[in-house]
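Appendix B. One record, verbatim.
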Amino acid sequence: MLKNLFILTFLLGLTNLSFSQCNPYFNYDEGTEIEQTNYNGKGKPSGKTTMVIKEVKGGGDHVIYVTQMTMQDQKDKEINSAEIEMECENGVFKLDLSRFAPQNMQEMEGINIEFEGSQLELPSTFSVGETLKEANFTVKVNSDNPALAMAMADSDINIYNRKVEAKESITTPAGTFECYKISYNSTMETKIMGIKKTFETSAIEWISKDVGMVKMESYDKKGKMSGYTLLTGYKK
């Protein structure tokens, strides 16, 4: 499951320094480019997401990133491109929730996805064995196409049981990173043809200083890997 992410010139140096004090795991400068490639359960590329930091606003304990998020399919055809804001406040980084939109929604033209509810948060420090805050939100699907609007239902998503499992070294095409391993469970409730359905999944993410997410693995309710994402490019 899996769309939505984020001054003054003379303050730029201060802004970047201050953000390191806000949350060192998401330490982005203006111009930073991050590429993440998605793979299916068989290890074949299924798409790519590129994020470019266009602007860094604020400083100290409150920083906002204005980002350009571009999604491509497995043939590098652009699916969607949008400007999204991400925020760090009082040491807590609030993650982009687009990764939790169902994949079939993300790949459809003429679909606009919005999120309502609590944001997924990551603190500025981790310790092995720690439990992180849950998140509950609704994925709202809008379309100018009446047929699509009727076919797509809103989904309620709950992210829970978030635990810091270990510290591990992870190697991807972008390099080798020292990471914290974080696991969690999720449920999605939606309606298909008017019938309520509940989907249960779990995931593991590896988070590293400066770059954020380095790797993510997704599993179905039986524990079978359904896909994974790797950091394949990082440029500051």
